[in-house]
Specification:
Helix content: 40-55%
Number of helices: 4
Distance between the termini: 118 Å
Number of strands: 8
Strand content: 25-35%
């Protein structure tokens, strides 16, 4: 029988390309295959426990930090609202306002800076049954000795020279009236209009 080229190539390949290295040799010399499966599993479990602990601690710290930030923001807003609403509104002034209209808001409706020495805060009380709004003022002077200011409203003039509170006007809600007044200080007059 004659050898074919195919057979010759096959014999030559088997003779030439015989590996001298066996799989068992590789496994014996490689440390990975010598590790006990239980030992490897224990190492992985230990690492997993550390990751879980780290995650839990970071989650708890994040929640504590979040509540801390929310608490600080709430406290700051509360202090800001208290300063805005009650900065010059004493209990005596508030009782006076309530004696005229039971629904006066402790938060002022607007603030007018008349000059460097004088500020005016306007408070509002609404009587829904009678459809009227009562407006009150608190004029605050920074210094004790002051030049008087004059408020002209409803053809009346109110002269004020010290920190005080008073009733500005009563306005009909039904008619859609606006509160209009003029403040005169040091010979200069300025007109103000407050819409409901």
């Amino acid at each position: 029988m004659k050898k074919t080229i195919k057979m010759m190539l096959k014999e030559d390949f088997e003779k030439t390309y015989q590996p001298k290295l066996k799989a068992s040799d590789v496994m014996e010399k490689t440390e990975y295959f010598n590790i006990d499966l239980k030992e490897q599993c224990a190492k992985n479990n230990k690492a997993l426990k550390q990751y879980k602990l780290s995650f839990r601690l970071s989650a708890i710290m994040s929640i504590v930090l979040l509540f801390g930030v929310i608490g600080l923001v709430y406290r700051q807003l509360h202090l800001t609202n208290k300063e805005m609403g009650d900065i010059y509104l004493t209990d005596e002034y508030y009782d006076y306002m309530i004696s005229i209209n039971q629904n006066v808001n402790r938060q002022y409706q607007c603030n007018i800076r008349i000059n460097d020495n004088v500020s005016m805060y306007i408070y509002k009380g609404v009587d829904v049954k009678e459809q009227i709004s009562d407006y009150f003022y608190i004029v605050h002077f920074e210094h004790t000795r002051n030049e008087p200011i004059t408020i002209l409203i409803n053809a009346q003039a109110v002269s004020i020279s010290e920190t005080s509170c008073g009733h500005l006007s009563r306005v009909s809600i039904e008619k859609g009236e606006a509160l209009q007044f003029i403040i005169n200080v040091d010979g200069l007059s300025k007109e103000y209009t407050i819409m409901d």
